[in-house]
Amino acid sequence: MLKFLTSILFILFSFCVFSQPIASFEKKQIDFGTVTEGTICKYTFKFRNTGNKPLIIYKVDVTCGCTTPRWSSPIKPGDTSSVYVELNTSFKTGYLAKGVNLTVNADDPEVNLVLIANVVPDTNFKTKIDSVTYFPIKTICYKSLCQIEISLNNLHKKKFKGDVENAENLVKYILRKQNYQVLSNIWYSSNSDFVQINTTNEDYNLILAKTLYKELKSKCRIKRLQKKMKRTKWSN
After folding, report:
1. Within a 13 Å sphere around the CA of 215, how many CA atoms are in the beta-carbon half?
2. φ and ψ at 35, to 5 degrees?
3. Which of 4, 115, 147, 159 has the fewest CB atoms within 10 Å around its CB?
4. 3-state secondary structure of 175
5. Are 118 and 94 in contact (CB under 8 A)?
6. DSSP-based three-state secondary structure for 49
């Protein structure tokens, strides 16, 4: 009787262990090669559930708001599916490597997809954009992308102390109380002269612009904010 029960338990254990969904991707990395700034790179990562249980994609995280994924779930055993991804290269130049990270119900719960591109500047790009200046910030919109640009030189005129890294930290400090949905859909592309905040959502862009304009329009506010950051030892 004991041997019989042991055998049953072994069979049940084996069934649980070997009954798993498996996401078998054709490829997990795509290199778009050299593209012109403003190009929207598109790719479909195809895969099959080679396991014997339904595959569920719990969530998909991106390492940059410039990347937009679409997917469906669950996927039955033996069925094929895909993760469609768009990489928006507006306001970006140079080598890019962006991640799309899936969390699934498989034995290996993380699937990491990578998009690579070498973006060359478009000399006509700046002539295609619509921009509005709310000193010391400027909002720029091009196709489906919006950018807020804050000149370090303009901040210095308002007695800001520090470099672009300090300025970007100041911006993050100001925006820290925005809701997660807004903050998870923006990304930074700052350089030595400007803090640049990007989003593909025009409503979020307006919310951020209004918030930043209110806090950065006066010397007194900027000075007070920098003192608060120093006092609280705030860091991103």
Report:
1. 19
2. -130, 160
3. 4
4. helix
5. yes
6. strand
Q: What is the DSSP letter of 228?
A: H
Q: Please list the pLDDT of the chain residue by residue as tens digits (236 residues).
A: 555 445 544 444 444 445 789 999 999 999 999 999 888 899 999 999 999 999 999 999 888 878 889 999 999 999 999 999 999 887 788 999 999 999 999 988 999 999 999 999 887 665 555 556 666 788 887 767 788 889 888 898 888 989 999 999 999 999 987 777 788 788 888 888 889 898 888 888 888 888 888 888 888 889 899 988 888 877 66
Q: Which residue has the tokens 């370090």?
A: 152
Residue 125 structure tokens? 């790009």
In the CATH hierarchy, which fold is given to the domain comprising 129-232?
Answer: Gyrase A; domain 2 (3.30.1360)
| Residue position matching structure tokens 């859909």 | 185
Lay out the sheet containing 67-71: strands in order across.
Answer: 23-25, 40-49, 80-88, 67-71
Is-cis flag, bond preceding 74, omega within 30? yes
Is the pTM higher than 0.85? no
Which residues are 62's β-sheet partners? 100
For 212, the token pair is 């930043």
Every domain of the chain and the residues it spans: 22-120, 129-232
Measure the CA–CA gap between 190 and 168, rounded to whole angstroms.
Answer: 8
